[in-house]
């Protein structure tokens, strides 16, 4: 316990400021507002999130560790650019971990979880029907997150979320590939069917096949 109560309060304020900057910049990267390669100017971040330069620097250090930010000599920090080859490697790692989580989810899911997963499928179907491809992309993420939450595999979840955060650029690009959302929907339906049936082996297989198709999509050049 600090001898000076005021010092303790200052430490808490500094920690809160660092967390605010960390959460804020991470959210902007995940949403695509901060694009790959974009410079992250400390003074701009200080003003936007209402924090000190020290808080910004600590937040950027944490995001560098997460693989979302990179330091460029003599130029400062920028949103890290992930190559297609690295994106494929990341998705291959996800395939193993998310396959495991899908199997665990099939074994653990309750009737309430079944209903929530089916509702998400219906929302995904409605987004495609409405031509809301970016909305579908968001629901795609929610579906994966829901299955991870049901699995309760905390170590796998933290690793997967860190890996997924590096693929924002490709997440949106895949959503815009002609025909990909419809194919993706069918893949998610098979995952949900296996989870609802309590078939762990089928759930793992369906998840791995889905991410194998994601890898195939990553290797497809974007439409001109």
TrEMBL record:
<dbReference type="InterPro" id="IPR000524">
    <property type="entry name" value="Tscrpt_reg_HTH_GntR"/>
</dbReference>
<protein>
    <submittedName>
        <fullName>GntR family transcriptional regulator</fullName>
    </submittedName>
</protein>
<dbReference type="InterPro" id="IPR011711">
    <property type="entry name" value="GntR_C"/>
</dbReference>
<keyword id="KW-0805">Transcription regulation</keyword>
<keyword id="KW-0804">Transcription</keyword>
<dbReference type="Pfam" id="PF00392">
    <property type="entry name" value="GntR"/>
</dbReference>
<dbReference type="InterPro" id="IPR008920">
    <property type="entry name" value="TF_FadR/GntR_C"/>
</dbReference>
<feature type="domain" description="HTH gntR-type">
    <location>
        <begin position="15"/>
        <end position="82"/>
    </location>
</feature>
<dbReference type="Pfam" id="PF07729">
    <property type="entry name" value="FCD"/>
</dbReference>
<keyword id="KW-0238">DNA-binding</keyword>
<dbReference type="InterPro" id="IPR036390">
    <property type="entry name" value="WH_DNA-bd_sf"/>
</dbReference>
<dbReference type="InterPro" id="IPR036388">
    <property type="entry name" value="WH-like_DNA-bd_sf"/>
</dbReference>
